[in-house]
Amino acid sequence: MTTALSDPVGLDVPFHARGPLSAAVLASPAGPPVDVDLLALAQRVSLEAADPLTDDDIQLSLFCLYAASYGLFPQIAPEREWDPGLIAARRVLESAVESALRVRVAAVPVPEPRRDSVAAALFELTSEDAGPSLSRFIAKKATRDQVREFLIHRSVYTLREADPHSWAIPRLTGAPKAALVEIQSDEYGGGRADRVHATVFAKAMRGAGLDDDYGHYLDAIPAVTLASFNAMSMFGLNGRLIGAIVGHLAAFEMTSSIPNRLYGDGLRRLGYGEDVLDYFDEHVEADAVHEQIAGRDLAGSLAEERPELVADIMFGAASCLLLDGAIGAHMLECWTAGASSLRDGSPR
C-alpha cells in the first residue's frame, strides 16, 4: 500500500512518496525545502536500508531524481536536472545501488578484450538457466489479471523503451557507436512514428484495458521493478559507466527474443487481439537480430577499443540479468501464493 505521507507540496505528480527521502525530493517544483538537509537524509536512508535494491524510498527517490532528465512528468521542472543538492543526493543513492549490484555479480568471469571472446562470454552468461521462467508461466498458466499486472510492471521501462541506452550514443565512437545506432533506430521505429516500440507497447496496454499514461500505475509498482529502470538510467547517465550500459543492452537483447515469443503464446491463449500481440511479435524477430549486433559489434568492438571496460561490460550484463530475474521471481512468488504482484493489489 502507499506510504501514509502527505502529497508533495506544489508538485502534483500522479503518485505518492514512500518515505522521508522521496517526500523531500518531491517537496516542491524548485527542490526540497530549505530546512531539509537532503544530502544527510540520503546518507541516512542509504545506511539504514536493509537492501537498496528493494527499498521503496530509495528506488522511488532515484526514479524521481532521474525524471527531469527524461522529461517524464511535466510537473518536474527540467531545471531540477542539474540542481546541485539533488545531484549530491542522487550520487549517494547511486553509490549504494551500484555497490549492492557489484557485490552480487562479483563472481562473473571477465573475458579477454577481444570481440569474439566478449561476445561468447555474453552469450554464455545469458544462456544460463537462472530458475523459474516468467515467460513460460505466462505462456502456459497466467490469467488475464496476471498478464495485466505483467504489462504494468513492464510499463515503467517500455513506455520509454530504448531511452536509457541512448544516453550512450554520444559517448561511443566508430564501430560501437554505429552498432548502437543501428539497434536504436529499430527501437525508435526506423523513422515511422507509429512503429516506435514505446508507442506499440502503449497500444498493447490500451488493448488490454489499461491506461497508457506514463506514471499512472507508479504507486502500484514495487521497488524491485523501479530498480531495473533506475539501474539503466544510472548506467546511461554516468559516463564512467559506459561499459555497464553497453553490457546491459547486450544482455537485454540476448534475453528478449524467446521470452517475447512465449509472451505472445500466452496472450494468444488468453484471446488477446493483434493490438496487444503486435509489440511482442515485433520483438521476436527484431531482437534475434539485435542480439548479434549487441554482442559482437557493440560490446565486442567496444572491448577491443577500450580493454579497460571489459569488466564493466560484464558487470552491466550481469546486473541486467540479476534485476530482470528479481522482477520475474517477485511476480511468480506472488502469483503462486495467490496474491497480486502490485503494491496496491490490483490493476486499475
How would you describe what is shown here?
This protein has 348 residues and is mainly α. It has 2 domains: 20-104, no CATH class; 115-336, Up-down Bundle (Heme Oxygenase, Chain A), CATH 1.20.910. Helix content is 62%, strand content 0%. It has 15 helices and no strands. α12 crosses α15 (310-336). The longest helix is centred in the last third of the chain and has 32 residues, at 274-305. 47% of the residues are buried. The model is unreliable at 1-10 (pLDDT under 50).
The geometry reads as globular
CATH architecture of the largest domain: Up-down Bundle
Q: Could you give the count of β-strands? A: 0
The CATH superfamily of the largest domain is identified as Heme oxygenase-like
Number of domains: 2
Which range best describes the helical content: under 10%, 10-25%, 25-40%, 40-55%, 55-70% or over 70%? 55-70%
CATH class of the largest domain: Mainly Alpha
State which percent range the strand residues make up.
under 5%
Order of helices and strands: HHHHHHHHHHHHHHH
Number of H- or I-type helical stretches: 15
Average pLDDT taken over every residue = 92
Report on the biggest sheet.
Answer: none
CATH topology of the largest domain: Heme Oxygenase, Chain A
Can you give me a brief rundown of this structure?
By secondary structure, the protein is mainly α. It has 15 helices and no strands.
Question: What key phrases describe this protein's structure?
Answer:
Heme Oxygenase, Chain A; 348 residues; disordered N terminus; globular; single chain; 15 helices; mainly alpha
